[in-house]
Structures are given as C-alpha cells and as structure tokens.
Amino acid sequence: MLRLIKRVSKKTGLPPGTPVHIGEKKIEKTRITIIDYDKDKFQQYEAEKIEECFPFKDTPTVTWINIDGIHEVEIIEDIGKHFDLHPLLLEDIVNTGQRPKIEHFENYLFIVLKMLYYDKEETEIKSEQVSLILGSNFVISFQESIGDVFNPVRDRIRNGKGRIRKMGADYLAYSLMDAIVDSYFVILEQLGEEIEHTEEELVKNPTPETLQAIHNLKREMIFLRKSTWPLREVVSVLEREESPLIKKSTSIYLRDVYDHTFQVIDTIETFRDMLSGMLDIYLSSISNRMNAIMKVLTIIATIFIPLTFIAGIYGMNFRFMPELEWHWGYPLVLLVMVAIGVLMLFYFRKKEWL
Amino acid sequence: MLRLIKRVSKKTGLPPGTPVHIGEKKIEKTRITIIDYDKDKFQQYEAEKIEECFPFKDTPTVTWINIDGIHEVEIIEDIGKHFDLHPLLLEDIVNTGQRPKIEHFENYLFIVLKMLYYDKEETEIKSEQVSLILGSNFVISFQESIGDVFNPVRDRIRNGKGRIRKMGADYLAYSLMDAIVDSYFVILEQLGEEIEHTEEELVKNPTPETLQAIHNLKREMIFLRKSTWPLREVVSVLEREESPLIKKSTSIYLRDVYDHTFQVIDTIETFRDMLSGMLDIYLSSISNRMNAIMKVLTIIATIFIPLTFIAGIYGMNFRFMPELEWHWGYPLVLLVMVAIGVLMLFYFRKKEWL
Amino acid sequence: MLRLIKRVSKKTGLPPGTPVHIGEKKIEKTRITIIDYDKDKFQQYEAEKIEECFPFKDTPTVTWINIDGIHEVEIIEDIGKHFDLHPLLLEDIVNTGQRPKIEHFENYLFIVLKMLYYDKEETEIKSEQVSLILGSNFVISFQESIGDVFNPVRDRIRNGKGRIRKMGADYLAYSLMDAIVDSYFVILEQLGEEIEHTEEELVKNPTPETLQAIHNLKREMIFLRKSTWPLREVVSVLEREESPLIKKSTSIYLRDVYDHTFQVIDTIETFRDMLSGMLDIYLSSISNRMNAIMKVLTIIATIFIPLTFIAGIYGMNFRFMPELEWHWGYPLVLLVMVAIGVLMLFYFRKKEWL
Amino acid sequence: MLRLIKRVSKKTGLPPGTPVHIGEKKIEKTRITIIDYDKDKFQQYEAEKIEECFPFKDTPTVTWINIDGIHEVEIIEDIGKHFDLHPLLLEDIVNTGQRPKIEHFENYLFIVLKMLYYDKEETEIKSEQVSLILGSNFVISFQESIGDVFNPVRDRIRNGKGRIRKMGADYLAYSLMDAIVDSYFVILEQLGEEIEHTEEELVKNPTPETLQAIHNLKREMIFLRKSTWPLREVVSVLEREESPLIKKSTSIYLRDVYDHTFQVIDTIETFRDMLSGMLDIYLSSISNRMNAIMKVLTIIATIFIPLTFIAGIYGMNFRFMPELEWHWGYPLVLLVMVAIGVLMLFYFRKKEWL
Amino acid sequence: MLRLIKRVSKKTGLPPGTPVHIGEKKIEKTRITIIDYDKDKFQQYEAEKIEECFPFKDTPTVTWINIDGIHEVEIIEDIGKHFDLHPLLLEDIVNTGQRPKIEHFENYLFIVLKMLYYDKEETEIKSEQVSLILGSNFVISFQESIGDVFNPVRDRIRNGKGRIRKMGADYLAYSLMDAIVDSYFVILEQLGEEIEHTEEELVKNPTPETLQAIHNLKREMIFLRKSTWPLREVVSVLEREESPLIKKSTSIYLRDVYDHTFQVIDTIETFRDMLSGMLDIYLSSISNRMNAIMKVLTIIATIFIPLTFIAGIYGMNFRFMPELEWHWGYPLVLLVMVAIGVLMLFYFRKKEWL
Fold it and tell me: Does D237 touch chain E (CB under 8 A)?
C-alpha cells in the first residue's frame, strides 16, 4: 500500500513551503556528487559539504550536481537558498509522494520523475522519486538512495561518447530523462515475460495461484499507469512549450522521449487488455471444471441410484414375493440392471456428456 | 443516502435568491469569530452580534470572519446586505447540497468547498460545506458546525509562522483551501488502510462480510469522487484565470494545491481500480470454494454409490443366488469393493481432484 | 417503451415544416392562458380564441402566453403565423419526441425542455414536453396537458414576490426553466429513497424481486440521463452565448440553473454507480446462498452415504459372514458408524464448512 | 458478416481512382430517372442512355438524376467524365463498403449515406449505399437497387407540396437526406418493439432463445451505430461549414436533420443500455433457477438419506440385535423416522428454503 | 509476446541517435532496389553497393530506393550521412518496436508504418516495420525482409498505369501507404471469416476450444488496434498539415487513405464488440448446460431416493412387521412406489423441468 499512497499525516498543518521528508529513509548519509564538463574538460568528485558545489552555479561549463538522499532537509534548504529555489519546490523534492510533473520558474525548470525498478524479493515494482532542476548551465538531481539508472550517461560524459559533451545542460537533463524512460522498457519486458508465463499456466493448469498472479500483474499495471500517464504529459509539455532553457536542437530529442513514453503507455494498455482477457479465461475454466465434476457425479448417481432401488425391492422381506421363488429370478434381475445401465450410458452419449 | 442528495423539496417554488437552509442543523447558535492581522498586529475575538464585524470591511488589515452555523438565515442576510453579496450567493451558502464551485463577482470571489471528515461511529465519510468569500482584504468563511481543519492556519497567523502574516487575503483563502485538501489525504490514508486490511482478509478467508466491506469502500469512493472532481476544477480555474483579487505570488501556491487535488483524484481512481480487482477475486474465490465442496461430494458419492449398490445386490432375498452359498463369497465381495474404491481413487488422482 | 421512442411512422414522408402532432393526446381542448404584467400592473385571464393573445406581441409589458394542449395543430399554426415563427419550430413543438434543445432565431429563442413527473400508479417517471419561445417582451410556453410545475412562478408574478415583476421576459423564461429543473430534484429524492429501500432489502433478504427493482431503477436512470444531459447543454449555451434577448443581469441566474442541472447529472451518475454496485452484491449473494445449500447437501451426503454402505454390507445374505454371529457385532458396528460420523464432522470443521 | 465488412480483396493492388464495384449485384440493368423542375415546370422520365441526362447540367432548372444500380462501371465513368467528377469519388460510389461521409470539391459536394431497411425474411437490418452529388443546380443520386425511401420527396416535387419547388438543389439534397434519416426511425420503432417483446419474455419465461434474441438485437445495435455515428458527423459538417452550394435558408433545415440524427443515436444508445441490463437479468435468472433446482435436490436428499440409513441399520442380519425382537420396535422406528423428517422440514423452513 | 513488446534491453544505456537493430533478423543480406522514373523514362535495378543510389538524390526524376533488411546498421548509417538524415531517425528505422508515426524535418518527411500479414502456420497476425523517407524527388523505404505488398505499385510504375508516372514523389509515398492500408482489409476479411466460423460453432456446439478461439481473436484485435490507431493519426496529420513536400493534388488522395484507415478502425471496433457478445453467449451457454445436468441429476435422485427408502423400510428385519405378512403387501408397496414416481413427474412437469 505504501507504494500507492504516502503517509502524509505528519505534514498536515505545517505552513506551505516547509520541506518535510515524506517517504522511507533509504540511505544513511546524503551523498553529493559533482560532474563538471565542457567540450574539452571533465572532472568528477564527491563533495564533503554542500557548499562545495556552490561555485559551479555561474561557471560556463555544464555542471551536474547529484544528491543521493533527501531526508537531510537542511542540505536541501541550503541548496535552495544558494540556487534561489522556490520553497514550494523544496517541499516537493523531499515529499516522495509527488506525481511526475514539470514546473516553469523564472530561471530554471523543475521536473519530478519516477525511477522504477523491479524488487525481485517482493516481486513488486518499486519507485524512487527523482527531481531535476535545470538551470542555464547546471542540472541538480535529487534521488532517494544511492544506485540509479544514470551510469550510462555518466560513462558517455566521461568518455565523450555521443554528442553530450558538445551540448548544454538541457541535453544533460534530456539524457537523464531518457535513461529513466529507457529503464521502463526493462520493467515492461519483465512483466511481459511474467504475463506470458501466466498465460501458459492458464492454458495448461489454472489454479487459484494463477488468479492471484493475474491479480498481482493487474495491480502492477495500475501502479505503472499512475507513473507513466503524468510522465507523458511532462515530456509533452517540455517538447511543445517554448522555454529559453531548452534549445531547439534538444527539442527534437525530447520528441524522441515523448515517442518512447507513448510506447510505454501503449504497452501498458495492451497488457491491461490481455490481463482482462486472461481473467475471463480463468473464470470460465473454473466453470468448465465444475461442469466436468458435475457430469461425473450425475452419471454415476443416475446410473446407480435406480439400480440400487431395484436391489432394494428384492431385499424386502414380504412373505409373498413370487419373483424371489423363480429359479432364474436372480440372473433376470441382473440382466435388467445391466440393460438399464447400458441404456443410461447411451442416453449420456447422446447428450454428449461422455 | 442523505450524504448523496440533500432534501430540497421545501425549497421548490421559492423565488431564486431566497436563502433557505437545507441540510442538518448541526449547531445551536451561530458563532462568529473574527481574526484581524497584518505584518505587525494580530487580534482574535468572538463577536456577539454580526454587526461587530462590519467595520473590518474597509480596514487595510487582513480580516478573517468565520461563521460557524448557517441555519440562522437572518445573520447570513445581514452579512449579505453589508458586504454587497449577490442573493443567489447567499442562497448557495445556506444550501448545503452544492457542488464545489467558484464564481467571480465584481468585488469578490465566491468559493464553495467540501470539508471531509471520517465519522468513526458510522464508519462513513461525512462532509461539511465550507463557503469562502474572498474580498480585497477580507475572507468570510461559512461552516455548518463548530470544529474544522483550520486550526493550523489559525496557529500560523497567531504565531506569525510562515509567510501568512506578510501576505494578503488571497493567501489566507489559499491557506484555508490548502488545509481542506490536506485533510483529504488523512481520509485517503484511512481508506487505504481499510483497503489493505480488506485485501488481506480476502486472501486469507473471504466471507460475505468481506464483500460488504468492498462494497462499502466502493461507495465511499463514489462519494469522494463526487467531492473531488469539481474541487479540481475550482482550483484549476482559480490558478489559471486572471483575477485582480489573486496576486501572482499567491498563484504559484494555488498551483501547489492543484497538484495536491490531482494526487487525491489519482489515488481515488487507483483505489477504485483496486476495489474492482478485489471484487473479481472475491467472486472467483466463491466459485473456487464451490468447486472444492463439489469435489468432496462427488468423490464420496461416486465411490460409495456403486459399492452400496453391490451390497444391495447381495442383500436381495432371491432363493437361488449361488454366490451367497460360496464359502469365500463374503470376503470376495469385500475384495471387489476395495478394488473398485481404489480404482476410483486412482481415477480422481489422474483427474487431479485429489 | 413509448417513453423512449415516440411513434413517428405517421410523419414519414411529409414535407419538413409540416406540424404533425406526435405523442399521446392528453387533453380534450387546448387551453390558452395569458398573464400580462409589469412593475405596476398584473392581469391574468383565459383566452377563448387564440386571436386574443395577438395584441400582446408588441406591448411594452411582459406577456406570458401558456398553451396547454398541442394536438390542435391549427392553433399552433395560427400562433406561428402571427408571431413569425419558423415552420420547423412549429413542427418541433407538436412532435413530443424532441431532445431538449435551444435554437437561436433572429427575433426569438426557441427552447425545448422536458418536464418530469413521477407516475405513482405505473411507478415510472413520465415526461411532458415544454416548448418556450422567448421574444423581446413575451414568452410563449407550450405544454402537452394541464397541470405543471409553474404555479410557484405564477404566484410570484401575482404577488410581486422576488424580483420577477421588475425584470423582463428573459427572467420569466429563466424562472420557468428553474422551476422545471427544481422539479427534477423532487424526482431524484423519490428515486433516492427507492434506492435506499432496495439496498436495505438487498442486505436483509434479496429476492428476484430485488433484482427486478434494481433493474427498474436502472431503467429510470437511463430515462433520466436521456433528458438531463441535453438539458445541461441547453442551459450552458444559454448562459455562455451572447444574445440580445438575454440581459446580463439574468445571465447570472442562468449560471445558477446550470449549477443545478450539474447537480442533477451528478446525482444521476452517482445513483448509476450505486445501482451497478448493488447488482454485483445481488449476484454474489445468489452465489453465496448456492454455496450454503451445497454445503448442507454435501455434509449430509458425505456423512450418511458411507454409513449406509456399511449397513448395506451387513444386510447381505451371505451364508458365511462371521461378524454376523459375533455377540457384540451389532454394537461394534454402531460404534464404528458413530466414529466415522464424528471424524467426518471434525473434517468439515477443519475445512470451516461448519 | 457481409453486412459488416465488404469483400475488398479483388480491389487490392489497383491504382487509386479505378472504380471497381464492390458489393452484391442487386439489380439487372442500371435505371436512370430524371426529374427536372422549377417553380412552374415539372417533368420526369426514364432515360435510356446516360447521355440523355447531360444537357441538364447547365440548365437553370433543378435536376435530379437518380441512378439505380452501380455495377455497370462504364455508366458511372461516363457521368464522371461529363460532370467533371474526381476519380476517387467515382471509386467511392461503386464501392459499397464506405462509411457515411462528406467531401467538398470545387464545384460540388459529395455525400455518402446508408439507407437502412429491415429484411423481414432474415430478420436483419440491411443497408444500401446512397451517394449524392450536389452541384449548383443538380443532384445526382446513386443507389444499389430499385426501391427507396424517396417516394414522398418525388410526390412533393410532382404535386408542388411544401416549399421544395421554390427552393434550389441544396434543398432537394436536404430532402433526400431527411427522408433517409426519417426511415431510421421506422427501423428503431421495429427494434423497440422487439426489445419490448424480448423483455416481456425475459420476465415471464427466459429460455436460451431469449438470450439469442438479446444477442441478435445487440448485433443490430452494433450495425446501426456503425451507420449513424458517421452520419451525424456528415450532417454536422454540412450544417456548420460555409459552402456556396448550401444557401442559408437551407442550412436551418439541416440543423433539423442534425437534431434527428441525434435522436436516432440517443435511442440507439438507450437501447444498448437496456439490452445490457436485460443480459444481466437473463444471467441472474439462470442462477436463480439453478438455485431452485439445488434446493429441491438438497431437501429431498437431506431428508431421505438419513432415514434410509436407519432403515439400512435394521436391515442388517446380525444375530444379536435386541431391537428387532421388541414388539413395538417397528412402529417405534417409524415414529423416529417421522420425527427426523419433521425436524428437517422445520430446519429448512427456518433457513427459508421452503 | 515478441509481437507486443520488442526486446530493448540491449539498447539501454547507449547514447541517443545510435542506431541499434532491435527485432528479429529476418534476412541474410540487405537488398537495395532502385526504381527511377518520370513521365517518359523508367528504369529498375538492384544495387550492389549502397553508394550506387546516391547519384539519384538530386536528379529531377522520381527515385524510389527500397532497402530490404535493416540489421546491417552501417548501410543505414551510410544512407543517413549521404541524405542528411537525423541520427534519431536512423535509430527509429532499425528499432522495429516503433509506433506508426510521422515526423517533419526540414527537407524530408519521416513516416513509420506497420505492414501486416497473416502467418498461417502460427495463425497469428505478424507485423513488419516499414519506414518511409519522402524527399522532394525521392522516396526511401526500409523493410525488415524481402516480400511486401508493394508489387502492384511497382507494376503500375512499370506499365505506366494510372497517374503514378505523371505525379511526383509524394504520390509515390501515398501509393505505398495506400498499399499497406489496403492489405489491412485482407487481414480483416480473414479475421471476419474466423469470427463468423467461431460464431457458428458457438451456436451449434460450444467447447472450451471455442472460448480459446474467441480469446485468440480478441488478442488479434488488441494487436491490430495497437497498429491502426496511431496509423490513423499519421495519415490525418499528413492530410491536414501544410508541407511543401505534399502537393495539393496528392492531398486529396491522402484523404482517401484516411477514410480507409477509418474503415479499418471501425471494423476492428465492431469485431471487438461482437467478440465481447460472443464471450457472454459462451459463458451463459456453460451455465445453461450446467442447469441441464443438474436437472437430470435432481430428477433421478428425487424420484428414486424416496422409493429406495420405502424399499429399505420393508427390508428391515423386525420380527413384528404386520405388512410383511399381508398377502397383497408386495404389490401394494409397488403400487405406492409407482404412484409416488408419477406424482414426482407431474411436479417436475409443473415446474417446467421436463
């Protein structure tokens, strides 16, 4: 449940713009990593104190300040003060219950995204909030914990692969968003395999566990949808709206991300449709089985109940029962019984129960 | 039912603009509380008569007049006359069956909201109508009864926490709306816990009570939706539309409230999806149980009915039944019976009924 | 069915603009009532001939001509000629199968509405078509039969209550529309009570009649929706569009009617949701009952079938059955039987069937 | 199935604009009928050759050229050449799988409609494609076969009834469209009666045939929707868009047709809702019947199985069974049996199974 | 599953604009075919090296370069460099998991489509991605494998049939799109026949295989929808948007394609509705069968269980049972049994179970 609604009671009543960390504390100490680069230079190091990253605000090089851990609210507030960030924005960064969204401020863009990863132990998709602040020559990213999907981006910057070193901060922000959306595909693949597996099970031998699996997959879809629909809006706004922070050459890449989010949503919707169909199959397979059981019961009962009745007749102790005295009485009765049984079987065959 | 449709028959036929109280009378006597403040000053007191609050209309300080109780129509009409409020607006204030809405008048904005609280005794969400009138330097709020979610706002004004004392009446109105939307999260948390609890029950031991619980939760969702969708529109209109009463510095805070209402709606929709899934699970668990019962019955019946028939055969009183005279007849028949039983069991195992 | 689609075959093939009465003939003779008023004067009388109302067309006073009965097509045509009404409009007035709609003509507005009332004998909502023609200083209303929801409006005009006498024809038209929408609430209340009643029945003792009741309520909702959705559009168009016939002071009242229609629709949708939920409950309560019946059958059968089999064994007439000769044979068998029965009961308790 | 998708394989691969007849050949020889009229003159005759209608292209009178039969592609092409029609348009005329649509060309409008009629033999709605070409003073209509719903229009032209003789070609086109939409109501009436009939059957005695009837009606609705939704768009475009070919005096009549298509759609949607409700009723009536059957079985079985067991006990052949020797043993046992039976009946009554 | 989501993990982390082939490798060696034509000339030949097609870029004739096979990324990159194609576009060409889409670049249009064909062996619809690049006088098409639906277009160019030789590159692009959409109809026909066949089966003798067939058809519909809805958007954008690359004379042909995609979608939606209805029929036919089985069981059991009980009574060994000594006891009991049986049958007939 915690995945779906964050506990917010501790926040109720505070003045707006008060940053209060909402969510799990996933890391001990906040870690600050600075990557600074332009076409020619590149440096990366871990900052001890938050103040170390302030000088990069106005340098012409592109600076990426990555903050892992958002529970130490004072650090967030320090950054906010130095980079002139709006208090409501700081509040959103530390409240992990945000929907993906984009907000335009005078000197920067604020983007909230969800980074998804598949928790194999709990067989559940988990999400981590990533907030990006895009200034004219810096990007600040906030994550809940260490470990992300940005390593390929770091590699590309370090090695100067692709055009990233030649482009500005907007391209860096795009690259981070692209990495996040890319990681969605990995999750969709995993879910796709699970759906395929469940479907096979459904055809071969559906059990209540199959139903549970379908139900769980449906819940994952609900969870995924909640993250991706607003994401699509975010990217769409970014692509369409004119902002001095987004250069035209980057805008075309955002259209590409937009296409990807669309593919993600498309696949989610397709999965949802398939899961609905699988539920129908499951329910009717239960009915079919019930039918099979009923048939067996009915065949056995309708054959033997009349026969038992006949046996009962000749088990009666009336003094005057002429049949009992006949020499061929017993075999005759057996014959009648067999005849009835065979007739019944023919009847069932005609009814296509056999 | 009263939650869903207010009794309006007593109103039918009156000229429009006639304020008639519709709803429960939740309080004995109307209570009027005045809070007046600016950056430096702060005073709060309870007014005996409604006339006491009239002088505050034109002072430069921000004044918040809070009216608890809306059944004394004359008081509402007095306020209406003094503050130049439109008769239709007065009618809306006392008719508690309004949808959340916003209306622009020349000198003030009129906002109707629903304050929700969870009635633990009736395990139902209850709603109370809150009407706000935002003038250039005053806010008048109307509530159905004493007791609200505004105490944190009052505290912030009193203690000068946050920026509320430095901002105008529009920020006060925003703060009240924010407090109301915040309280929705508390209710969603409670419902979320109930859903979680019901879901566990569903997996462990679903009973008709579980179904009833799912059904009740669904009804709560219907009720919540009815309040929150129009709320979203209200906030959206407030944020987007240009109004001289809303300063630009406040507008950004309204965007924040808008985000929150969106989160509320998102969560409601997610809960609805989950409850639908739970209903499916419940229905198929009933089917599964039926299946299990049928299996036991069928196994017992199909094993013993033929055996009883055989016993019946040798219970017949025919004079000439050679088997009866055999020395090993009885053990032989027992053996045959055991053999049939074992065969049956093998058959059921093959069919995976065991 | 007649409620849902009007018989139109007799019209097929006629040139457009030919007024042909479609619908039930609900009244013997057309009744024409004229109310003429301004701030100071008021007169009301019944006209013998339609010509009596022609002089009022160009007087400065506000005139309300109410026509009860639309089957005498010649009268409608006479009015049409004198007031310069478009032939298609006349056709719409007498064809009671219209959707609520509004049409703008050069000198007047044409509004079609549905007046609803609850027919207690047939326990069905019935509708009557009301057509309004709003000119610069007159309103002509056409109804299918005598008896309407406009008496409060008439009273207000007569007594000069509210502002109606001071306002123009547009306010009169608004008042009539308001009266109609108000009457919808009365119907919703009645349906709300029926839903409540049916829901109680559903919890206590659902019978096939409960299902029928749910089904009937659903049909009423379909019927209501068909009338109210287009109504909302009509009012919305009226409120938003600039028309010289609607003064700005009246426009604010139309916004109020718009809010009301929205409340009506909201309530209908909520009722629909609730009825769907009730259907689910009903269906699963049937399943539950089936389960209960199956359990009893299975318990009885699985306990006694094996016991009967044992009795059958010792009812066999084999000559050599040592047990039969034992002195304690009979009590022993009884003991065994009791033991089996008790074991079975324990098994069922473990399975939670008891 | 042929109703839903036309066989198009024979067309695949041809260059666009190649007219290929797709659909059933419903008529032997193409029939060409020319009606030419103005306020004073009127002539109607059947043309032997297509060339006979060419002179009418530029006369000031209104000319209606009606072509019955579209399988003789050369005739269509001749018309196309003479009247300067676009090749794609010709292709659409002879391909009967079109959706209703409207296309604007420089000198004419092209409208495709579906004429519906109820085939009583196959109890199915059939459709015939009608294509209209509206020029400045002529209308060319293409139909698949002889027999249509336009006779009333012909009569009106011949007799000079209504305003048709005084108006231009646009009014003629409107009249034809109006006639088609009118005929939809006739079909809706028939379906309405069938629905009513099926509903009665459903309440009295639902059989699998009732289900089949509901299913068939649902299919008819799917078919009807497919024809009417695009029709509404066509009429809407015609009404709203400015075209020199449509005079303003005709435009108001198109609004009337638009209202009618809206009524048709409304009724279809209502019927769909009703049919869904009927399906629910049907399914739960099956469940109810199953319940009733199960009850009878369970009551009989649970009463007699224990009694039969008791009889079995005293049918055992143990030598030492004291009860058997009692003088009142037999009546006592009978008494016990009656007592058990009566107790059972009380139990069932308490459970409300009786 | 591979049909629904392409494996993209190997791409994650690469810089954007890196073309990586995603999808099955369906062909050994890339094949390049060049068709060059204008009104008078025509030449077609297979190129050995990609460089052979570069000269055609700036000739005034229309050139169609068709690439079969997209796994040799270097070739794609060569084309990209020579024709100045954006790197992201190249990436899209080789990633076969694209949605149909259109993108506007300065000197060319980029269109992604899905070519569908029915794989009879796997009884599944398969799709192949076709990318088109439309320049001012050339079209480059990329396909996954040899074999396509473009042969009729090739024939028309070769033979000069239709207007294709007289028109420009935009008409060629249109022709290719038209050929693809045309091929959808062939698939719809096949599916339509399958649906028809399944429906017949459903009425005659529904088996679990019928359910599986319905389910599979539903999945095909999900797959088709995923391809056609975005296709419609693509064509709609092409038709509406002004682009110097699309001449007005071609635009009218695109409207035709748009109509066709609409027909495709319409048919898919209709099929979906029909399949839903068929599922309902299937499920209720299972219930009906269960009912029939239950009836037989109940009738047999309720008739014979009481009779067997009576037989059991007179099988008891009490010493004092007066009936047993009666001379007519046995026939009397038989008579009573027959009477009970007949009564039961009457009861069942009254209940309409027989």
Answer: no
Chain E residues near residue D304 by CB distance under 8 angstroms: 305-306, 308-309
Boundary residue ending a domain (D284, D319, D340): D284
Domain that holds residue C325: 294-350
Contact at CB, E286 and A288, closer than 8 angstroms: yes
Q: D179 to chain C: which residues are within 8 Å by CB?
A: 13
Cβ distance A16 to B253 less than 8 Å, yes or no, reads: yes
The backbone torsions φ and ψ at residue B341, rounded to the nearest 5 degrees and listed phi first, read: -60, -45
Q: Are E234 and E154 in contact (CB under 8 A)?
A: no
Residue A12 lies in a domain: no
Separation in Å, CA of E280 to nearest CA in chain A: 10
Nearest to B280 among A14, A279, A289 (CB): A279
- Domain presence at residue A1: no
Render E18-56 in DSSP notation, one character per residue.
----BS----SS-EEEEEEE-SS-EEEEEESSGGGGGGG
**Number of folded domains that form chain C:** 2
* Chain A closest-CA separation from residue B11 CA (Å): 38
**Whether C183 contacts chain B with CB within 8 A:** yes
Are residues A188 and A327 both part of a single domain? no
Residues of chain A with pLDDT under 70: 1-13, 354
Which helix (H) or strand (E) segment holds residue A151: the answer is helix A151-159
Co-location of E199 and E250 in the same domain: yes
Q: Considering the domain boundaries, does residue B35 fall inside one?
A: yes
0.95 exceeded by pTM = no
Q: Please list every residue in chain C whose beta carbon sits closer than 8 Å to the beta carbon of residue D151.
A: 13
CATH of the domain at D315: 1.20.58.340
Residues A316 and A245 in one domain: no
Q: Say yes or no for a CB contact (<8 Å) between B211 and C284.
A: yes
Please list the pLDDT of chain E residue by residue as tens digits (354 residues).
445 566 555 566 677 777 877 777 777 788 999 999 988 889 998 888 888 888 888 888 999 999 998 888 888 899 999 898 988 889 889 888 888 999 888 889 999 999 988 877 777 888 899 999 999 889 999 998 887 889 889 998 998 877 888 888 999 999 999 999 988 988 998 898 899 899 888 888 888 888 888 988 998 898 888 888 889 889 988 888 778 888 888 888 898 899 889 889 988 998 998 898 888 888 888 888 888 888 888 888 888 888 988 888 888 888 888 888 888 888 888 899 899 999 989 988 888 776
Q: Looking at the structure, tell me whether residues C128 and C148 fall in a common domain.
A: yes
CATH code for the domain of D275: 3.30.460.20
The reply to whether E308 falls in a domain is no
SS3 assignment for A200-269:
HHHHHCCCHHHHHHHHHHHHHHHHHHHHHHHHHHHHHHHHHCCCCCCCHHHHHHHHHHHHHHHHHHHHHH
Cβ-Cβ contacts under 8 Å, D266 against chain C: 99, 226
Check whether residue E225 and residue E335 sit in a common domain. Answer: no
**How many residue pairs from chains C and D have C-beta atoms closer than 8 A?**
170
Check whether residue B214 and residue B301 sit in a common domain. Answer: no
Instruction: State the nearest Cα–Cα gap between C129 and chain B, in angstroms.
Output: 20
- Residues of chain D falling short of pLDDT 50: 1-2
Where does a domain end: D284, D302, D337?
D284
Residue A223 CB partners (closer than 8 Å, separation 6+): A3, A4, A125, A127
CA E230 to CA B335: how far, in whole Å? 72
Q: H or E segment at E68? A: strand E62-68
Nearest CB partner across the interface for B7, out of C189, C256, C259: C189
Given a contact cutoff of 8 angstroms between Cβ atoms, the answer to whether E164 and E176 are in contact is no
Residues D30 and D50 in one domain: yes
Closest CA to C166 of C41, C312, C269: C41
Q: Which of residues 319-348 of D touch E (CB under 8 A)?
A: 321, 323-330, 333-334
Same domain, B75 and B221: yes
